[in-house]
Design a protein that fits this description.
8-stranded mixed β-barrel; 6-stranded mixed beta sheet; single chain; Immunoglobulin-like; mainly beta; 2 domains; 43% strand
């Protein structure tokens, strides 16, 4: 666990004029993360979003007013739409620089990435309500939000505005191996050849807003109702070898450096119906293994790592549950 926070600077695309005052600039920080709950064995999955965040811009809204927590005020930026902030030549940059209005009360609300195939930012979005429709079948973006509020006093304007990004989605990872028991040969191996999940809520709308009457706070609300029992999601095909556990670790099923897919926060195998996984192996040929996942509440910002442990007579499911944790790739930034 890192004891400190690494900052990433956001500056304007062109040089400010000193006569206009102090330029508004930003810093992005990583929120601390701790292990929340563990059930069973298995390796914790840690996903770094540093490089992913740099590859795409984020959107930000801003407002200032004479009184703290005011419902109305003046837009910080020229447009009421979200301003796009992109990472270029070592820093975050945005067009049309803005300056602090001294002693005014500010709030900023941001989301990352600025656009993507999995989600759509609704036109009604503003500094007090970012509304986003998300579909897991349409893309893989790791949606994140950030909020900051404060008064433009001397201490604040001498620093960059700290934006702390948190994950809006749950993360899922799956791995497989043979049980470490005497009745399983030490050299036992097989290959997983296909995988899919059904029985989830694949679409939802997230509201990144504020509690009633408190414009200086942030809250996240998911609206996700339509359970889909039949469609198979997160479909994967390939040929990944897996082995007896103990001498070997479980084999991740998805390809890529993270082996994590995004999910709408919901209750897996909850009141709406079971959540199931389906997979085939080289030894089994066309025979499909069907497993119902345990009932677990998938929360935003948490990774759920499922390990399928195959023995001679059955397949057990073990889960490791872990909050997203920042991993430092370089000296610039790490994001929760």
């Amino acid at each position: 666990m890192f004891s400190g926070l690494t900052l990433l600077f956001l500056v304007a695309c062109h040089k400010p004029s000193e006569e206009n005052g102090v330029l508004i600039s930003f810093a992005s920080t990583a929120q601390s993360a701790l292990v929340s709950t563990k059930a069973g064995a298995g390796e914790n999955t840690v996903l770094s979003t540093t490089e992913k965040m740099r590859s795409k811009p984020f959107g930000i809204y801003g407002l200032y007013a004479q009184d703290p927590g005011s419902e109305t005020g003046t837009n910080v930026f020229l447009s009421t739409d979200a301003v796009s902030v992109s990472h270029q030549t070592g820093s975050w940059e945005y067009d049309n620089l803005e300056y602090w209005s001294i002693n005014q009360f500010y709030r900023f609300r941001a989301y990352h990435p600025y656009s993507g195939s999995a989600f759509n930012v609704l036109n009604s979005s503003s500094v007090d309500l970012i509304s986003i429709d998300y579909k897991v079948a349409s893309g893989t973006e790791d949606l994140m939000f950030a909020f900051w509020k404060g008064q433009a006093n001397e201490a604040v304007i001498s620093q960059r505005v700290p934006m702390t990004f948190v994950h809006a989605l749950a993360g899922l990872s799956f791995s497989i191996g043979f049980k470490n028991s005497p009745d399983v040969d030490d050299n036992r191996t097989d290959n997983i050849t296909s995988f899919a999940v059904s029985g989830i809520i694949p679409n939802g709308t997230v509201l990144y807003t504020h509690p009633d009457g408190d414009f200086d706070a942030a809250t996240m609300i998911w609206i996700a109702e339509n359970y889909d029992a039949s469609t198979k999601y997160y479909q994967w095909t390939g040929s990944n070898a897996f082995y007896k556990l103990g001498a070997h670790t479980a084999t991740p099923i998805f390809d890529g450096p993270d082996n994590v897919v995004m999910a709408i926060p919901q209750s897996s195998s909850g009141a709406k119906g079971p959540t199931k996984v389906f997979f085939t192996t080289s030894e089994g040929g066309d025979a499909v293994n069907e497993i119902t996942l345990p009932e677990v509440q998938w929360e935003p910002g948490v990774i759920y790592s499922y390990t399928f442990i195959i023995s001679q007579s059955k397949i057990d499911v073990e889960i490791t549950i872990k909050d997203w944790e920042p991993v430092e790739i370089n000296e610039d930034i790490h994001i929760l």
